[in-house]
């Protein structure tokens, strides 16, 4: 199995440190708002990698942290006249709800920074004892010049990094690239007691401390969006390796951006769509299928049109799954002369090559074609064949990629979903043309059928009225 390692800039053979066990850490969200579908792409692709490692019988221990103390959380709390703990708690709950909506399995451990203060403080102490940190009146900085090979992940030396970095001028720092390990508390901010006075940790140290606590000094896979290579992951390496003297991470994986109109989707640019809104329009399976059509490291554009066209491609796979399920239940055993092994091989070869999901999807389509051809030509296929075909889709399309629904009648539900959304779009168009009579008629007729439209500032959604 090959994995592209950002550190070596090449595909490397995957061999975990300890036999069959894989320790995997992915940087999670800062919980000050709902997460957007760009973050969603990173979390979905990480989920697929985890699921595939399990498919290959590795024992995966997956950690995704929650950054619950941060400037943005404090700012939001001040705006709302509340405390940062309640802001963080609200968005942690929302995060768990939203990953579920995208069929992302929760990590084995989801550690919070605020629950790891002793570990964070101890790690900073260690870094300080070893001479890599300096304290300026309660603000503790990491001294990047002390760490040999600072920049090795980005492939740049200190001068190049300095030239390219937009770091704010801070008179307390010896070098503009030095970063905060511990921030002295300002008036009204949450704080913890430490050897350097009251304060809170910097962002980077959280990940070093939490990954070490839950996965040990050296981990197999560490991932995140490609915006995290510098400075976040570079800084994590500097901290962890300075403290332990050991290699921090064996394989670095970075996820490409989800773009909107060719620009990185981000909170600060305002060009984002929350997962909560996107899942109102498209089922999780369609979103995941769309993401699978690009390699995880490549950039990918997002738009309703692109997702719509993904939807119709996916239907072929779902329809076959539903058919296999229905035919299997008829129980007539039938012939056992179909070789499924080459299809598994094709899927595995694709995923073994640095998790090449576009090729894995092509392998599944190839399978759909092969099965449809067999059932068209051979009238003696029966439950055995359909149950094996169903198993293939359950293990690959459902188990690894998460792109089909296993419940019965899923294809019909999807069609129903599409039709209602079509009517919603039509009603919007009618309203723009000031044809309110027809627009209201659509709403009322849908209501009679048990579908309630709900208008809000961000658009119209629908729900089924209970009892229907
Ligand atoms: P944040 O809450 O901004 O720290 O982001 C959480 C995760 O989502 C990080 O791994 C980011 O690198 C990743 N991320 C942020 N924006 C995007 C985007 N547009 N496309 C893909 N991943 C992203
Ligand atoms: Zn991190």
- Please list the strands of the largest sheet in the order they lie side by side: 4-3-9-10
Q: What would you call the structural class?
A: alpha/beta
The CATH homologous superfamily name of the largest domain equals HUPs
Major sheet: size, sense and barrel closure? 4 strands, parallel
User: Runs with pLDDT <50, length 5+?
Assistant: none
**Can you tell me the number of structural domains?**
3
Descriptors:
15 strands, 3 domains, binds zinc ion, alpha/beta, 15% strand, four-stranded parallel β-sheet, Rossmann fold, 468 residues, Four Helix Bundle (Hemerythrin (Met), subunit A), binds adenosine monophosphate, four-stranded antiparallel β-sheet
SSE topology:
Layout (H helix, E strand, L loop, with lengths): L1 E4 L4 E4 L7 E6 L10 H19 L3 E6 L6 H9 L4 H18 L15 H13 L3 E4 L2 E4 L15 H7 L14 E6 L14 E3 L1 H13 L3 E7 L3 H16 L4 E7 L2 E3 L2 E2 L10 H7 L2 H9 L7 E2 L2 H25 L12 H12 L4 H21 L5 H18 L9 H23 L3 H13 L2 E6 L2 E6 L4
Parallel strand pairs: 3-4, 3-9, 9-10, 11-13
Antiparallel strand pairs: 1-2, 5-6, 6-7, 7-8, 11-12, 14-15
The structure holds adenosine monophosphate and zinc ion (ZN).
Q: TL;DR of this structure?
A:
The protein has 15 helices and 15 strands.
Structure description:
The chain folds into 3 domains: 16-280, Rossmann fold; 285-408, Up-down Bundle (Four Helix Bundle (Hemerythrin (Met), subunit A)); 411-464, no CATH class. The protein is built from 15 helices and 15 strands. The chain has 468 residues and is an alpha/beta fold. It has a 4-stranded parallel β-sheet, with helices on both faces. It starts with a strand and ends with a strand. The mean pLDDT is 94. Helix 6 (203-215) crosses helix 7 (229-244). Adenosine monophosphate binds at residues 27, 29-30, 38-39, 41-42, 224-225, 227-228, 255, 257-258, 264-266.
């Amino acid at each position: 199995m090959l994995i592209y390692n950002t550190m070596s800039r090449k595909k490397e053979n995957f061999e975990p440190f300890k036999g069959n066990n894989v320790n995997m850490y992915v940087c999670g969200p800062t919980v000050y708002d709902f997460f957007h579908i760009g973050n969603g792409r990173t979390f979905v692709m990480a989920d697929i990698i985890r699921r595939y490692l399990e498919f290959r019988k590795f024992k995966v221990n997956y950690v995704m942290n929650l950054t619950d103390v941060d400037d943005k959380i404090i700012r939001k709390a001040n705006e709302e006249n509340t405390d940062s703990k309640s802001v963080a708690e609200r968005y942690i709950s929302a995060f768990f709800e939203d990953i579920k909506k995208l069929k992302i399995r929760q990590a084995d451990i989801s550690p919070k920074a605020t629950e790891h203060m002793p570990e964070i403080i101890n790690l900073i102490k260690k870094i300080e004892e070893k001479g890599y940190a300096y304290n300026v009146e309660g603000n503790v900085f990491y001294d990047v010049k002390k760490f040999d090979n600072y920049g090795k992940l980005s492939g740049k030396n200190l001068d190049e990094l300095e030239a390219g970095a937009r770091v704010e001028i801070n008179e307390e720092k010896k070098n503009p690239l030095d970063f905060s390990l511990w921030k002295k508390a300002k008036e009204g901010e949450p704080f913890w007691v430490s050897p350097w006075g009251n304060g809170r940790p910097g962002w980077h140290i959280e990940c070093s401390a939490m990954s070490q606590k839950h996965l040990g000094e050296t981990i197999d896979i560490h991932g995140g969006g490609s915006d995290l290579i510098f400075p976040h992951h570079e800084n994590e390496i500097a901290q962890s390796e300075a403290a332990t003297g050991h290699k921090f991470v064996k394989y670095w994986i970075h996820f490409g951006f989800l773009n909107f109109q060719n620009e990185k989707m981000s909170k600060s640019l305002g060009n984002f769509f929350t997962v909560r809104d996107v899942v109102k329009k498209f089922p999780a399976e369609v979103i995941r299928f769309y993401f699978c059509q690009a390699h995880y490291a490549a950039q990918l554009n997002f738009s309703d049109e692109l997702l719509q066209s993904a939807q119709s491609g996916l239907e072929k796979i779902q329809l076959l799954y539903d058919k296999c399920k229905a035919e299997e239940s008829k129980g007539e055993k039938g012939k056992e002369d179909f070789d499924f092994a080459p299809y598994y091989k094709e899927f595995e070869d694709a995923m073994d090559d640095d998790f090449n999901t576009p090729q894995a999807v092509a392998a599944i389509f190839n399978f759909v074609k092969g099965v449809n051809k067999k059932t068209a030509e051979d009238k003696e296929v029966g439950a055995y064949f359909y149950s094996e075909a169903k198993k293939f889709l359950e293990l690959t399309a459902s188990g690894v990629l998460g792109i089909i629904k296993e419940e019965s009648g899923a294809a019909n539900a999807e069609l129903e979903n599409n039709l209602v959304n079509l009517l919603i779009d039509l009603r919007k168009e009618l309203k723009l043309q000031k044809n309110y009579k027809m627009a209201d008629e659509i709403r009322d007729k849908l209501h009679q059928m048990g579908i309630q439209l709900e208008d809000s500032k961000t658009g119209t959604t629908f729900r089924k009225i209970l009892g229907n």
